[in-house]
Write a structure and sequence with these properties.
alpha+beta; 26 helices; about 75% helix; five-stranded mixed β-sheet
Length: about 700
Amino acid sequence: MFKSTSFKRLVRFCMLLLPVVALAVNALVNEREELKRKIKQLQANSAEYQKDSLYIDLLLNLGKEIRYYNSDSLYILAKDALAYSRKINYRKGESYSFMRIADYYSDKGDNKMAVTFYRKSLNVANEIGNTGIALQTMNNLASEYGYIGDYSKALSGYLDGIELATKVNDLEMLSIMNENIANLYASQNDYSQSLEFFKKVSKLNEEIGNEVYSAQTNSNLASVYAEMGEQEYAMFHINKAIAVFERRNLTDWLAFAYEIKGKVYLQQENFKWALYWYHQSELLHQKIQDDRGIIDLYNGMAEAHLGTGNDSISEQYAQNAFAISTRIQFTEGTQKCAKTLYKIHKNKENYSEALRYHELFQRLSDTLSRNENSKILSMLKTKNEYDKQKLALIEDNKRELAKQQSYVNIALFVLLIFIVVTYLVHRGQKIQKQLNLELKSKQESLKLREAELEENISTKNKLFSIIGHDLRGPIGALQSLLNMFKDGEIGKDDFWDFIPKLRDDVDHISFTLNNLLQWGYTQMNGAVTKPTVVAIDSLVDENINLLSELAETKKITINNEIPENTLVYADTNQIDIVVRNLLSNALKFTPDNGIIQLKVEEHPKHFEFSVRDTGVGMDKITQEKLFSKDANVSTYGTNNEKGTGLGLSLCKEMVEKNNGTIWVESALRIGTSFYFTIPKYEKAYSNAS
């Protein structure tokens, strides 16, 4: 509906919605004013109001309400409440005061102080046996570990909280903590696991019957669906959430919901409607203090303005988001802003600044990628350890019950002595048989581990061989050249003459490392194939563009005869590696002025792709070794280009992981043709999913 609406109608619609925003803010202001009125009334009616626990509770409630509006006042109120609670030994107030102080430090980005005060709050809550405060603090503490990036402790904290909430049947905290775990997995792009936890949350919310909880869940669920690219689901859930937040005047959640709706339109490239909803969120953010939330908002607005061609406005929002991310040391926010600023400066043809932000984006992306891998492993390890602890506890309970049962059996021992003797003999035979089976199983397991160890040693030797042969040489040459330039042995002009060679060496090192990492990942059983619909013609075009400079250098003609919209069902990254390696090999072994042809032949269930060159060809012995897992065939191309000997072995693994086959046909001094098959995309795949 919005796509067909004229711009003037859009503006009128915006004006109609402004009173809704104002109403939400006014309602919250009235609630704060009511708390202030009650505080003043207690101060006027009692000379010793500071010793009244009701007065302390009012201070803490007021602090909670102004958290996102005046964080400094929150800190002052919490400190006063803590002092008054200690004077009258009001332990509940002391625990809540610690929690509010921790909230203040959390919002300021001081994670260390936030963790310290959350732990103090939890210790007091445990001492007085107040599970309600304990559960809130456990949830906040786990969330703080999530902000720090320690996902192992975050997940462990949520699971401990769920166990306690289950014991006391606190459905609200069960809903909150399960939803936080769902968001944790979503941040790792593990959407299937995230949706599993959201299913639990939805069931809990139905049992609770609170529409606000359901709306909050719908907001987070919409954000996940937007990240997954499921825009219709995202829009459905966010519209349901907004209706509740507007009716209940929940400003902070409404600001978040408007931002999510803007993100949905942004991913649809509907920039006008994206900016409209972002502006609605921005109006609410003017009344609240939420640095983490406003980073995504500003960066989203920057992307939307960039999409409409307003580069200057886009840059202002991106710089604001970048400054906030840097101040609170929010790496993911800095990464997103750097990417947007790179696009802006590239459009302005300010290439030095564009390069600076692009390098920052790449560095942060590499850091986050490495961190995320370790975080995911840590999360899984923590969950497994948690499950093992539960199983161990169950086994302990079983053994205790068995021990109690044995005392009962003793009373019947005299009457059953002969039966027991017979049973023991029979059981002894069974135990002996079982022990024999276990011994055999362990022997087989030992042999299997021995084979795995030999395989790992072989992998290690091959890895070091490649590093020593194909990486140490170029790196050593580069190092020697730089030292000669540094020591003055060669001049600046001579050094510039080596730049083309240096570039070739760096390209070779980059290509070699990429193949090496992919190969090593598959050897350690880490590569998981995730097939999707892939337009392989577009993928081939991208790789031709990537290697076009080498082709132009050797004056090689590349004929891409693959039709448009040639759809296959395979893992995009793995097939990309296959195409890049085959095309790179063809360029490597084809002499100047040669020809490379890329073709496809359609079959009922699959496509057969071919990469043909007019290169030097190879003999039968070389062909037989090409795809061997243990082979390391590394040769030089027609212009002395270097290779690792890993590419074709890696191609074979990747093709077979995608249910295909690969083979080669070649003749010396005539050329080489590589063939591989990939399953066709069929509508049945889409229907099944």
